Amino acid sequence: MPMRSVDIERVRALPLFQCAAQRTFDNLIAGAFLQKFPAGTTLLMEGDPVDFLYVLIEGLAELQGTWNDKETTLAVLRPVSTFILAAVVLDADALMTARTIERSDILMISGESVRRAMKEDAGFAVAVAEELSGCYRGLVRTVKNQKLRGASERLANYLLAEQVSQGGGPTLILPHEKRVLASLLGMTPENLSRAFANLTDYGVTVNGPQVTLLRPIALDRLAKPDRLIDSHLQPSAARVGMADRECRASAAGTIGALN
Amino acid sequence: MPMRSVDIERVRALPLFQCAAQRTFDNLIAGAFLQKFPAGTTLLMEGDPVDFLYVLIEGLAELQGTWNDKETTLAVLRPVSTFILAAVVLDADALMTARTIERSDILMISGESVRRAMKEDAGFAVAVAEELSGCYRGLVRTVKNQKLRGASERLANYLLAEQVSQGGGPTLILPHEKRVLASLLGMTPENLSRAFANLTDYGVTVNGPQVTLLRPIALDRLAKPDRLIDSHLQPSAARVGMADRECRASAAGTIGALN
DNA sequence: CGGCGAATTGACGGACGTCAACTGCTGTGG
DNA sequence: CCACAGCAGTTGACGTCCGTCAATTCGCCG
User: Which of B132, B141, B183 to probe by mutation at the A interface, max A CB count within 10 Å?
Assistant: First the structure.
């Protein structure tokens, strides 16, 4: 429950916190909990009031939305990401359910203290606005991805993005169950299987969670990745120091670490 | 080009600006332009650097995304809304192109001065964060709408939302061409026609841009509107003063005034 | 060993996109 | 004033993509 100083430093290094005054940061973590959750734990249900800002320190988590007994995954989060920031800022009810996919370490910071810190520390308030901007743009990319691309195109782009995020080698490991991936990409598990089958012509080989891209150029020609949709290919950051805030926020899933 | 004081007051009254210090606000509008554009003008192209924060004062505008020669409408904006805020905050390239649908009056505020104002005025920075949060949540609703509902369900919900936004009477006027509506709802114009046809069984009558809802209860049973997707039905604002920031931002289209 | 759930495969149906033809409106120019 | 071109909207036919249902296989864990 008390935080290790290693973890404190990881949090302090987040874009969200690194510009905050030391005093602001201390106040924020003073009333914070670091908690371990097993896989499959629901942290927060859609529609519930939000009392905490969450920070995923270790593990894997998922944000999902529901309607009419149907469910969809809006994002898969990797460490280190914050989530549910927008609801915290507005003190509003959650629009998505948050669930752990793996055993996870999660830092919970009082929402009330976040709102107070923003009013007292302009640097922190700016950082919150920047974080939200990155999340917002991640979602814009998501919507474009969904509305403009077909199912196999979405999968192809996902694979290319994962490839670079896993070091650029020809073979990559899916970070979670295929059913979660299917939901993230906006299709059924059955259709994801077929989408993988479609991509065999483009050099995609599947073996359980392990996927190999034998003909990346052919796959790329199908996927047509675009810097205005796929956040992993950003131009050479002409304005230094920025850009990577947006990148980090968008690193998880096809899309963004959504707040 | 010089702003009328009427317009200045309308801008000042926006949630984004009403908490800003007078001095901050004066600096912001000091270097701002108020400009009139004819219908169909492209204000900003996808991929371009963003130099201004835009405020739609009068008229109607549209944000669209493109990929592989396909185009989709991400939002339709009504006065008074800001747009392209997120790109301004990050000083990043636009992810969407902005186009006027009708003749419009648009206020353009220097992006540089917005970023400076945030650093100097914590109240303004908080307001920016709140605005972005509302926009973000609008987009979350959009994604859920897209991924969880079928085409006629999206249309039905759009109609019910428009109905309340136009005073609650049985008949409403579509604010723009049906082709724009189709694109906003994620379908082709042909399919929008068919979706309207499907809804005749639920008391929906179409006559050009005029739509009448004869059996709102039946339509509602089909649409299953949900407060976690459809921003027009918010609970009774237990915490006063907030909530309507989110509502305003989400009032345009099925979805949000996207920034 | 037995059972459960994830993943795959096939068959089927429905939803949606595409193409084409037709209507009706509007603005233009002879 | 009317003829005509151009575009939005509608309708029909058709094909494809995708979801649903069912059966099967496989791996994991009790």
Answer: B132
**pLDDT for residue B161:** 97
B188 CB-to-strand C distance under 7 Å: yes
Measure CB to CB from residue A126 to each of B85, B125, B259 and give the nearest one. B125
Contact B136 A86 (CB under 8 A): yes
Listed residue (B27, B232, B248) closest to B131, CA to CA:
B248
Asked if residues A222 and A209 have their Cβ atoms less than 8 Å apart, the reply is no
Closest by Cβ to B90, choosing from A74, A148, A242: A242
Rounded CA separation B143/A141 (Å): 11
pLDDT score, position B241: 43
Rounded CA separation A78/A59 (Å): 7
How far apart, in Å, are the Cα atoms of B34 and each of A219, B55, B56? Answer: 47, 9, 10
What pLDDT is attached to residue B2? 65
DSSP strands (E only) in chain B: 33-37, 42-44, 52-58, 61-67, 70-77, 81-83, 97-100, 104-110, 171-173, 204-207, 210-213
Domain definitions of chain B by residue range: 5-144, 150-225
Strand D nucleotides within 7 Å of a protein CB = 8-13, 17-22
Q: Using 70 as the pLDDT threshold, list the residues of chain B that sit under it.
A: 1-2, 236-259
Look up the CATH architecture of domain B150-225.
Orthogonal Bundle (1.10)
Q: What class does CATH assign to A5-144?
A: mainly beta
Mean pLDDT, range A45-61, rounded to an integer: 97
Measure in Å the smallest separation between the Cα of A177 and chain B Cα atoms.
20
pLDDT digits (tens, 9 = 90+) for B42-68: 999 999 999 999 999 999 999 999 999
Cβ-contact B169, B163 below 8 angstroms: yes
Distance CA A184, CA B58 (A): 38
A65 C-beta neighbours (distance < 10 Å), count: 23
Chain A residues near residue B186 by CB distance under 8 angstroms: 147
Question: What count of CB pairs under 8 Å joins A to B?
Answer: 186
Q: Which of B128, B136, B228 sits opposite A135 (nearest CB)?
A: B136
Residue A116 pLDDT greater than 70, yes or no: yes
In contact, A141 and A230? CB cutoff 8 Å: yes
Q: In the β-sheet with B33-37, what is the strand arrangement from edge to edge?
A: B33-37, B104-110, B52-58, B81-83
Q: Could you tell me the distance in Å between the CA of residue A200 and the C1' of nucleotide C10?
A: 19
Q: Is it the case that residue A151 has pLDDT exceeding 60?
A: yes
What is the model's pLDDT at position B158? 98
Structure tokens at A104: 């996870």
d(CA B123, CA B20): 6
